[in-house]
Design goal:
mainly alpha; 0% strand
Length: 84
Amino acid sequence: MHELVSSEDARQVVVQAMEKYKAGDAGAPFERSVLQAVLHITEIDQAELQQLKAEMTTGGVSWRDFNNALKQEALRQSSLMPAV
């Protein structure tokens, strides 16, 4: 995952994806960079995660589908991490 400095940086990635989603790009919230940004937020700021969840579901994104994609990305990332 590319390094995100803060939850605000990660939030910006999600906000841009939601703008694309509202403009008709149904896949925008499911892009790898967006999934990575949300996973980053999950690790550092649960309040921010709940805010994004509310915004995404209000915006029309299925949280069930998005959460499934998050789980797949988390598994992909964990398989890429070197064993300690």
